[in-house]
Every structure is written in structure tokens, then in C-alpha cells.
UniProtKB/TrEMBL annotation, chains A, B, C, D:
<keyword id="KW-0378">Hydrolase</keyword>
<keyword id="KW-0865">Zymogen</keyword>
<comment type="subunit">
    <text>Homotetramer.</text>
</comment>
<feature type="propeptide">
    <location>
        <begin position="1"/>
        <end position="13"/>
    </location>
</feature>
<comment type="similarity">
    <text>Belongs to the peptidase A25 family.</text>
</comment>
<dbReference type="InterPro" id="IPR005080">
    <property type="entry name" value="Peptidase_A25"/>
</dbReference>
<dbReference type="Pfam" id="PF03418">
    <property type="entry name" value="Peptidase_A25"/>
</dbReference>
<keyword id="KW-0645">Protease</keyword>
<dbReference type="InterPro" id="IPR023430">
    <property type="entry name" value="Pept_HybD-like_dom_sf"/>
</dbReference>
<dbReference type="GO" id="GO:0004222">
    <property type="term" value="F:metalloendopeptidase activity"/>
</dbReference>
<protein>
    <recommendedName>
        <fullName>Germination protease</fullName>
        <ecNumber>3.4.24.78</ecNumber>
    </recommendedName>
</protein>
<dbReference type="GO" id="GO:0009847">
    <property type="term" value="P:spore germination"/>
</dbReference>
<dbReference type="GO" id="GO:0006508">
    <property type="term" value="P:proteolysis"/>
</dbReference>
<comment type="function">
    <text>Initiates the rapid degradation of small, acid-soluble proteins during spore germination.</text>
</comment>
Length: 333, 333, 333, 333
């Protein structure tokens, strides 16, 4: 039995946001969903473990382990913070790999989903360009590879509109030829809240699913399809205009609720209906007029480059023992 | 006496939107404001002439002639439509130049405001890169310049954060050295409505004013400052999140007003208050949480490139008689 | 039996140059090598058919059909000439496809070899980005595809240093999944003469061979490897410094030979030895000092973009009957 | 009296190369020319002081202080070496500023000459984008600027073909408005030897002179013209094909001279004539055939980016006491 994600109309690719939608109060546990939140020096780390079908149904997310880093101040260009986030991400990701059973000698294929030419969708290809690949050394001169490195390869399969081929088919073909043990796929996501855009990294061992991310994926990258596990690293880089509006109304509701118990007077029916119903209403109004565009912050070029460096340097340190993970940023350019 | 634009809190750089805010019904004339709207083959052309102080106060815009092209379907990548828009813009702009007194032998300096490295703010520099400049030929070998060309030069002065110098000071210095008769300044603007982003071109003979456009301008490009007239070509490329929300609530109001006379029930107090009050409310909620970001559609790279080509080829045809303006696009790359 | 290309030390990927090396006089036929040269309005078209083993051995090129366009004036930025070259290339390539047995319903996979981030090696990826792909329409809604289009897909597999996987392995995997009938591979080449760089297009039905092109390919794209024919489109974008020097000495030799019969006095031993020996000598001197760099003209950015547009628009017109091939440039951006 | 640089036909913008042309043996002093060479950890630092007219005439360079860093191994991508070079350059440049009389409170205008869109000519604009500018803080909130910073501004004036205005006129206008005390101009140069391309940085207090650098400058940036001193930082990024050939013949001559005293036999007349005569000969042969192109190594994108970072981070540390110059690279992106 698979959970029908379509039923959840608020467009988010983040488990964190799905969880908040179901139960805004983080202290009330949801059966089948384990949650752990830590904050340290401006980096908030949330672990959500969807343990069974009951939990999956409850929050509308597949069973699996979701690790999320939130760093609101990433918005302010601060290269020291970026180094710190890259280092933290490297440590957390190294632990995560162990937790989900990826061993030190496992061969990794990094897949950078997305489109070079559309900046908010270019995160995946940008990571591919900056990670340290080693597979060719292992193939060509296995005796000369220093200890502390594992076999890593990386591809950016492009998007359907540019290639005419599903990216999942391209990856399948490459997996069959190059025989990795595990895939790490990087994807740009949609968030329901603008302030999570480019400040959040989600890691999940559920692969990439049809319809997720920015492009129109009709097939995914999953263990069922590929025969090997796929860990997804997703970063929200866009929002739908309708979710910005819906989210703002929600914020207005909370705002006025703190000041008055007459929010019904202020927001009318918008106060009564559920978030999903309200979103449907907003979409109903915006879409026919062509207003439900997908948007990204105007500083997108810089955000994507910074985030691409954080993830690439984090991956380099997490995947290769020989890369010093106390100062991971030195290994990318 | 100057009009205090700050009093108008809805953030728009478009006269069209300022006028709509004051009097949504286009058929009711505003004293001191002449307006003419024509639509042809998907291109809507609006001329607003703010004729005197009364009109300026009424719509919160400076006296002057505002020419606006709106082409909603520019969003759909259609190279034939783009050629058609470039050609139309060239013809309208050539007429506009005559109307505001720019003569055929006047020397033109094109100023591309904005920042190369921030895509939604890169329109100005992109136009500079694509226009046909001729001033150096007139300077170096005046006898050999073919008839039908005028003296055109072009600069991209950069932004304060990159140069440390106000762009208006840089332009002043260049004007004093190169002695043009008129400036045409290209600037990326903020719109109050997402659907006007990258589908609208505004021409105005009022120059560039402090605080307008995307960057933080503290000084402008005006006749007072420069001693020569400055025609501004502005294209909205961004929106504030708060104006998206406010605009959406307005649209919901109109939407429900068509179906019921109980919009008060649906939207509560949001229905009662003025657009300005409502925007203030939205900002009050969003800003402290860092949600009032400036956003741009995710396809921004392509939009800016297309719009840069339309404007550059339009300018080439409007400024040089020798450039055939029945097919203007052939002259840029 | 295969011809050992290594024996031919002058580094060129062009059959035209290989032929010139063997027999500079174009009027003296080489057994097993058919040659036909036409020049029209600044475009020189050479057809070389290496018909058998004898011919292959003679000029050190594999058996097959080589079509070469040379347009020296492509260097001067002239957009009308570019359109004319794209149109001519489209017509010649359409004929070539018939000649080598590619039928109208054959499904084509375009492979853009090379590296986005190294401009002289970015031609392949740039063509991929600009060609019209249709395979996904045939897969998703076959009934709605207009007549006059064929199934075309396109990939840029990246280079070994970025992916860690041979591009030939990646292509093999994609071929097995997407099942095209024929491959058209675009590759940047080395030329022995600087003036052919970015002014020449070579088409050959021999595939891509190890060591050809700019990157270090260890495996090729050949019918033996892929099971389907591979047509290579190559454009010289670089030269070795040593071949520039060697070529210049050759030119000096010809130059002085026209003026005197004492070239021996002027050029000493350089006049006596064969071109291959002289190249070996030049390399012997330059290489230890790190001077035998691969170079490209300084205008490489513009050249590669222009050439990418010519090839992409030529392919669009040659592959799809519905694309009007009297003005092919309109279909790319 | 000015020295006629045109008389020196070997095309180089480097004093180092001009000196070598006149007297290849570094141990034989040239009257009026002081020279000091130090090498440390792969970085060769040459100081040439052209002290008077006699020296200027002797080596065909203007009177002034030339500081040159040569780092042949910059070619091999090595980020630690790059950091080391940036740090060394910062220290040397800080000392150089003192030596030529630039004081700690002097206001600096950095001028990045060249063209964004032509990679080998993009060094100047790239440095401008990466330096720390502070002038606007001093102008807007002088009380709040931390100690240890000086007033720095930066502009990229563009090239004549894009702007239609001489870059020197643009800079003059900006100088008059912004009133700096000294200019530091960054320019891409031509070298006579390919191995110096992108491995060499020259600093000189002679300003920028007509005809120097890559673009066609007709006017320069000099104290005479601007009223303030101009320090030029030049990096060779291109070579003429003819100088590559000429240089190679020179290398062959040296090579054979070590093995035999019969170089006359090997190189004929090429052995007898002077380097200038030989270059004239090479040009005579190559130019009419369009072979005397300006070339750059194929890895130009990466070289220019690396060099831009080295210079920008070096300038930041040398100009602002507050920037730690033991690890200068951390301050650019």
C-alpha cells in the first residue's frame, strides 16, 4: 500500500512542513512519527523518523529517516557561517550514512537533478561540478589511490525538456553500466514558506518521487526502480505564489490571535476554514489569472552558488575519510 | 513643490499601477491626467500624461509622459511574438522621442542601471551590451559614418555595493566628459502585481528618482542633476512578497464580489479597509519574521535575456534611421 | 585490421588536414580516396570518401565519408553569413544523412561531448541545449505529434574529470534505455592550423574514437561499441602551440620558395626534414619547458556560441522536415 | 621627451621581457636599470627600477618601479598555492604602495579595464566585482566605519567597442566626481611567451598607456591625464601567434646551441638575424594569411577566475589594515 501524497494539497517537499501542517504544536507526538529537534549556534537540526504506515498516513510522507538543517541566517552573506554549516552538514551526513546502512567501502553515484540554465533549478548540476570524483582513479590505477578515499562518481542527467528522456531512465542506464552501491540525489524543492527557501537542507532515505522537486518528474529514483538505495538531498529554492499568500494569511491569523480573540472579525471566513481549504480557495482565485507563478528570492544566483558549495564540500568530507572534515570548505572552488 | 511619493505606500514603480490604485475604473477620468489605451494583437499600449500638479498629486506620480506596453503572453516563450514586440516598441519609442522633443541629430547616452551578478537586476547592463554604439566612429572618423546613424554611447555604471560610488555620480562624470544631449536610462523595477513582471515596459520622461528601481538609489538621474533630459525605460522584474499577498487578497475580494454580496463574511475586516491600510497590515505581519522578501519568477534568467533583446533591438531601430525597423531583432544577438 | 592513427604524429582531427599532409597538391588523386571540392559564396565544401583499406592507410584515416565546410570569414562577426552557413549546413547534412543510410523515421540521439566549464570544450553541451528535442512528446502523447517531426533526444554526458565515468559508458547506458537508431555526436577538435579553428565543420560517419577531440577519451562512440551507427560532427576549437609553430615554419618555407630557390639558406635543416620530423623537433624543444600548451583564439566565447547556434539550427532543420530549412536560424535562441 | 615604445617591435607589455630582449644575461647590469631577483618557494619576485632616461631608452620602458611575481606552477590547479600567492602578493603590494608614496589614508579608486564578455579580457571587471569597497560607508556614515579601513571604490568602465567612449574619458569623469588620491588599474596584457600567460603579475607605477593591454586603447590612464598617480597591475592573459612562433625559434636556437656549434646549419638564416628581424619575418608571413591571431590557453576560464581571486584578495589585504594578511583568500568569494 502506498500513501497518496496527492491528497495533501499544500505544495511542500519538506517533511518538516508536512508535519507542521498536521500538528503545529511540536510537543504533541504523532503516533508512528519520532521527532527530535536540536538547535546549536544558529543551526536547527530536526530528525523525523516516520516509523510505520500509521506515521506515514498521519503526516503524508513515506516511511524513512528525514534529517533537516535550518539556518535562517544563511540569507545574510557570511562566509564564516557558511563554512560552519558545511562542516556541520558533513558531520551530520556522515552519521546519517551509517544510520541508514551505507558502509565505508560502498561506491556512491551522486546525481545532480535539475537544469543548468534555470538558476533556482541549477543546484544539482552545481553540486556535481564541485564534488570530488574518484571512480576513474579506482578504475584506471586502483593501486595508486591513497587510503581514505571511496569510489565516487557524479552525473547531471539534465531535464526532460532539454533531453527528451526522463532523468530516471538516464540514471538507470548509468547505474547499470557503472554499478554504484548507493545513489545520493540532489534536487531543488518547493517550500510552502518563503523563509525556508535557501536556508534549509533536507536529507531523506526515500529516494526521489514523481512530481517532487522543481522539474516535472514523471518517474522517480527509488530502490524499486534502480535496485540500489537512493538518498535524497533537497533544498527548497522556490515557492508557489499561492502558498506565499496562504502562509501569510496563516501568519496574520496567528498574529491577531495573540492580540484578540476576535480573529473571526478580522479575517472573516478565512479564519474558519482549514489551511488546505484556504489554499484551494487562493489557488482557485489566482490560477485562472495566471498569478500562481513559482517564485524565488531575487538574490537567487548567490544563494544557489553558496548552497551548492555547502553541499559539495559537505559531501566531500562525509564521503572521503581522507578529507579533513574540520574545515571542509577548502576542498571546493 | 515636489510630490511626496513616499506617501503612497503600495510599492510600485509603474504609473499604470499608481493610477489603478487611485481609480480602478479606467473610464472615470482623473483631472490633470490624460489617459489613452489601445490594444492590438496581444500588445496593450497605455499612454498616461500627467499634465499638471493636480494630476501629479492625484496619482502620486511626477508630471510627464508615461508610455506603457503590456504583453501578458511574453511569458510563453514565443520568438515570433518577441520579434513583434521589439518592432512595436521600436515604432512607439521613435514616436515618443519626437513627442518629448528629442531630435534626429541629438546625441544619446544609454545608461544601463543595475548589477550584472543579480539576474533580476541585470536588465540594464544586458541592454548596454547589446545596443549598437557609434559615438567612437563619429569621434575617430566622422567622414566615414554612413548617413542614418546618430551618435550613441552606452555605459553600465554598476551599483553602489560594488563600486562604492553612487551610479548618479558616475553618470554625471561621464556626461561631463562625453557631452550627450539626452540620456536613456534602463532600470529594473518593482511591480505590485506578479503578472506584470517581465511582461511590461514603461517609458517615462521623468528620469530616474531616488529609491526607484531594484537597487538602493539615493540620488537620481534627472534634468536638474545632469543638465540634460533623461528618459527612463523601466521593466518590472521583481515583486515584494507583501504586495503579492495584498494583491491576492484584492483579487479574492473581486472574485467573491462577483458571486455574492457577502464578501464581508468571507474576508472579514480585510474587506473593509483600504488597499493601503491592508498592505500596511500585511507588512506589519510579514516583515518582523523576515518574510517580506523580494521575489522574481523562477524563469528569471530567460525572461531577462528575452526582455534585454527586445529593448536593445527596439532602441537600435528607434535611434538609427538606417536600422530597418520592420524586423528589428536581426540587429542584436 | 585497424589503421594505427598514432603513427601520424601531426596532431589533427580533420581528414582534410590529414589528406593535405600526405599530398598537398589537391589535384593528384590518392588511390582509395575520392575527393570533391566545391566553393560557393565563401563556403568551401569538401567531400572525402575513404573507400577502402588502401585509402585509409594512405591518409591515416578510417574508411568512411567525410564532409567538411570551411568558412574563413566566420571569424568576422556577421550574422547574415552565420544564417547562410546554418542553412547550407542544414541542406548538406540532410543529404549526408540519406547518403549514409539514415532514414526519415530513424530515432536520433544527439550527444554533446565536452565540458560546460571550459569554453573551447563547451560546443557539444551548447548544441544539446539548443536543439529541438521531441522524444518525450512521442513517448507521452504519440497521437498529438504533428507530422514532419522525428524522434530526437539529446544528452551532454560530461567529461571523465567531472563525472568519474567514461562518457562512452554513460552514452551506452542511455542508448540501452532510450533505444535510438542512430547517434549524432558533437565534439570539439584540435586542428593543426589556427585559421581553421572555429571556421570549419567536419561530419564523418566513423563515430568518435579514443584520443580524438579535446578531452582525454579512452573509449569511443562507435558502432562496434554501441550497436548503432554514430555520425560525428567535429569543430576545431583549439591548436597545440607546437603545431602553430610547425605550421608557421611550413608557411615560411612556401613563402620563401615563391621568392627564391635558396630556402635551404634561409631555413637551414628545417627546410630539409619532413613535416613530421620537424614537428617532432619542435615538440622536443617546447614540451620540457611546458610551452606546448593547447591554445584557442581570444574571442573563444563568441566563436563557440556562434558555432553552437549554427550547428543546432542546422540539425533542427536537417532532422525535422517540418522545420523550414530556408531560414533555419529562427528556431534557436 | 618620451621614449617611443613603438620602436620595440616584439609585442610585450612586461618590463621583464623587454629587459630580457635587450640583455638576456641577467647578471650583466644595464646602466640606469636596477634589478633585483629573489625566488622563494616557487614564487619568483623581480624588481626592476628604471631610474633615468638612459635606462628607459635602454630597455624601451618608461621610468618607474616594476614589481613582477612569476609563479609557473599556478597553471596546476592548487588552491593552497593560490592562497600562498595571494598572501605574498598582498605583502609585496603593501610594501610597494609605501615605496611609491601611497599613504595609509589615501583614497583609492580601483579601475578594472577590459570586457566582461571576452574571458581573457575579463580580469579587470572580475577583480572589481571581488574587491571590498568602502567609500560609500565613509560617505554615508563616516562615524561608524571601523578603524583599519581606507576609502576604496571600484569601477569597470567597459571597452570602446561596447560603450563608444574611451575608458580613459570615463575614468577621468569618475575621478573628477569621486576625488580619489590614487588609481590602481587592473589590465590584461599580451606576453611574448606563452608560459608567462596567467602565471605572472606585474605592478608598475607608470599608469596605463595607449596601445597597452588587450583592448585598443587610444588614450591612457596617467598622472598627466588624471592629475593623480596611477599604479598598473597587469597580468598577461594572451599571446600573439607570431610571438609564439618567434619565441619557439629562439628556444630551438638555445636548445641546439647547447648540443652543437652548427646551429647555423640547423636554422639557416633564422639563426643569424636578430629577434626583432625574425619576428618581423614571421609576421610578414603569417599576417596576410590571417594567421597572426591572438590566442589564450584553453583553460582560460579557470585561469582568469583564479587570478582574479588572487589579485582581489591581495588588494583587500594590502589596502585595508583591518584585513588579516596572513590568510587573505578568506575575504573574497
Amino acid at each position: 500500500m502506498t500513501v497518496d501524497l496527492k491528497a495533501y494539497s499544500v505544495r511542500t517537499d519538506l517533511a518538516l512542513e508536512a508535519r507542521e501542517l498536521v500538528q503545529p504544536d511540536a510537543h504533541i507526538p504523532i503516533p508512528g512519527v519520532f521527532e527530535d529537534v536540536k538547535e546549536e549556534a544558529g543551526i536547527k537540526v530536526t530528525r523525523i523518523h516516520v516509523q510505520n504506515e500509521e506515521g506515514a498516513r498521519a503526516i503524508g510522507r513515506l516511511q524513512g529517516r528525514y534529517l533537516t538543517l535550518e539556518v535562517p541566517s544563511l540569507r545574510r552573506k557570511d562566509s564564516k557561517l557558511q563554512d560552519r554549516v558545511a562542516t556541520k552538514f558533513a558531520q551530520l551526513f556522515a552519521d546519517y550514512l551509517k544510520e541508514v546502512g551505507v558502509q565505508e567501502n560502498h561506491k556512491v553515484l551522486i546525481v545532480g537533478l535539475g537544469n543548468w540554465n534555470v538558476t533556482p533549478d541549477a543546484l544539482g548540476p552545481m553540486v556535481v561540478e564541485n564534488v570530488l570524483v574518484t571512480r576513474h582513479y579506482f578504475e584506471l590505477m586502483p593501486d595508486q589511490v591513497s587510503p581514505g578515499y571511496r569510489q565516487v562518481s557524479a552525473v547531471a542527467p539534465g531535464v526532460l525538456g532539454i533531453t527528451g528522456i526522463e532523468s530516471s531512465e538516464i540514471v538507470q542506464g548509468i547505474v547499470e553500466k557503472s554499478k554504484p552501491d548507493v545513489i545520493i540525489a540532489i534536487d531543488a524543492l518547493a517550500s510552502k514558506s518563503l523563509e525556508r527557501v535557501n536556508t534549509t537542507i533536507q536529507v531523506a532515505d526515500i529516494g526521489i518521487h514523481p512530481g517532487s522537486g522543481i522539474g516535472n518528474k514523471r518517474k522517480g529514483l527509488t530502490k524499486e526502480l534502480l535496485g540500489i538505495p537512493c538518498i535524497a538531498i533537497g533544498v527548497p529554492t522556490v515557492c508557489y505564489a499561492s502558498t506565499i499568500v496562504n502562509n501569510a494569511i496563516e501568519m496574520m491569523k496567528s498574529h491577531f490571535a495573540q492580540e484578540t480573540d476576535q480573529t473571526r472579525d478580522i479575517l472573516g471566513m478565512l479564519d474558519d476554514i482549514s489551511e488546505d481549504e484556504r489554499l484551494a480557495l487562493v489557488k482557485e482565485v489566482l490560477q485562472p489569472l495566471g498569478h500562481d507563478l513559482i517564485v524565488t528570492p531575487k538574490e537567487v544566483d548567490e544563494f544557489i552558488e553558496d548552497m551548492g558549495n555547502i553541499i559539495a564540500s559537505g559531501l566531500n568530507a562525509a564521503l572521503h575519510e581522507a578529507v579533513d572534515n574540520s574545515n571542509v570548505a577548502a576542498y571546493t572552488h
